[in-house]
Amino acid sequence: MDSITIEWKIPETPSSSWLQCDSSIVSYNLTYWPRDDPTNSTTISVNSTEDIVVKTVNELDVCTEYEFSIVVVNSIDLAGPANMTSAMTDKIPPQPVDSADVTSDSYNHLEITWSEPFSQCGAPSYTVSRRLLLNDQCDDSMADTVTWEVTGDTSIEYDDLLPYSTYEFTVLATLEGYVAETVYVIAYNSTESVSTAPPEDFTVDNTVKGKLDYTWSSPPCGDRNGAVSYDYEFGEAGGDDVQRENLIVTSKSFEDLKHYMMYEFTVCPRTVVGPGPCIFIQTRTLPSEPTGPLNVESDLGSTNQTYTIIAWEKPELINGLFLRYEIQKDNDDVIMIVEEEERIYSFSDLEPNQEYAIKVRAVSSGGNGAWDSVDVTTLPIPEPNTPEVPVTTAKNDTSISIEWPLVDDTNLGIYRITNYTVRYSSATGDEDTIDVNYITSPMVCTIAPLEPGTEYYIKVRAVNEGGPGGWSESLTESTDQTFTTCPDHFLVPGVQIGLIVVVVVILLYAVAVTFLLIQLRRKGPIRTEENGQDPYMDLRPRSEADNIYQEIAITSTTSSQKPGERRLPSSDLFHKNQNVEQFANTTQDDAGYELVLTPN
């Protein structure tokens, strides 16, 4: 049994004639009946003064639609107009289909019959679906799921099935939108027979050492006959240890197999009746890699600064075919030798005094062998011998010339002597060097500029591409003195400069005096106040008896920045036409000079 709850609101503004004399709503009459049976009605009174009235009607039939009528009753027992509504009780889904039978009288005809499940709401309908699991005839149009609706019956027939195929059928009970909890599943093979052709597109992949991968496809369309799986056999050719298994896929892989071994593989399609024609193939796995190490060695007797030779032993190829040797020096490009008996190689582009890692491996049809390596160190460049002590061939106060015999470099091979270095120093100065790049016999070098009268220590050494050799014993030699009779203090630059300044001042002084005398002799006769000639300033030759001739000496009594005479301007002289005795005294002019007159 089931129930339905009805809810309604009180009328807001009753205006009908049944509400008279200020009567009020006191109750409601609720009448209900099945829609399919109006004569089977029931009326109940609902007393309520609430604005919203709720009433539940119980003991109703399930899966039934009911009509409801609500009438308002006032205080004088007058009933108002009815308000109608309807509702449906709950539906109960049908039970699932629990059994079915399949009947077929040909490869493409099939009838499915199932039992009707229990349902409280009447006979259910059914949804039947069909799905093609294994399409033997290569017709993809039937591969999708197809659905049929069955009403009023518990069976369905098919006459369009593909031959030698597998189908899956499902039956689902439904009732007006309600479905059963589960479906009933039926699997069916349209024909039971063996395949009439072997699998197609059979391939094997043996590119991975110790592994074989087989793939194939189903027999061709029309010969498959419902094949749903495959039987295979696998083992060594001619061996007794054979693996057997049934597969539902169309591929199979085998790993950890013996190298360079022949294996056999057979695969057959199987239907529900049995296996069909088989396909067979033989495949050999890849061979093994060559063995190692190769005992790579370096010929130390042949190794020099740029050259070395390596050799190695012949590897064991096991079951592979020789392809080549691979040689690599450090991270350089790989060198390949394709002759199996050629197991020696030389390098002629090495650097002196360098260590190299050289490795060798064999490569066969089975793959790459292991690397075997050897470390080789080239010889350093030989150092030149030490020269003999140089000897002095010439010298002066600023240079010393030396020579020395050539160093024998025949033992240096290609690294002959390229130049010599001369090093010289004094007790007070720093060391200096000179590179002598021109090779002569004997070697010569002039060291300049040097300090006069200084003792030097001179030595030489030979140089080649590898660097310098040892220094010779020192030659001790002194430059000549510049001033051999001068005291030592004359060698001091400050004293020399002072002497030069003194000499220059004396010379300038003499030139000034000479120039002044010449100017005085060139002057004309000196006039007296009476416009007569001044006998005392007449410089013409006179006799010794001429006592008025006087010698005039002008001496400066002031000093200047540099020694010398300044010419006294003639305008500064004060002349008086007087006897010479009157000028015995000293007079000072405006320029600061004294005028001394001395009788002859």
Q: What topology does this entry show?
A:
Layout: E1 2-9, E2 25-34, E3 42-46, E4 52-60, E5 65-74, E6 79-88, E7 100-106, E8 109-114, E9 125-134, E10 146-151, E11 155-158, E12 166-175, E13 178-179, E14 184-189, E15 200-205, E16 212-217, E17 229-236, E18 242-247, E19 251-254, E20 262-270, E21 279-284, E22 297-298, E23 308-311, E24 322-329, E25 335-337, E26 344-347, E27 355-364, E28 367-368, E29 372-377, E30 391-395, E31 400-404, E32 419-426, E33 432-436, E34 443-447, E35 455-464, E36 467-468, E37 475-478, H1 493-522, E38 550-555, E39 587-588, E40 594-599
Antiparallel strand pairs: 1-4, 2-3, 2-5, 5-6, 7-8, 8-11, 9-10, 9-12, 12-13, 12-14, 15-16, 16-19, 17-18, 17-20, 20-21, 22-23, 23-26, 24-25, 24-27, 27-28, 27-29, 30-31, 31-34, 32-33, 32-35, 35-36, 35-37, 38-40, 39-40
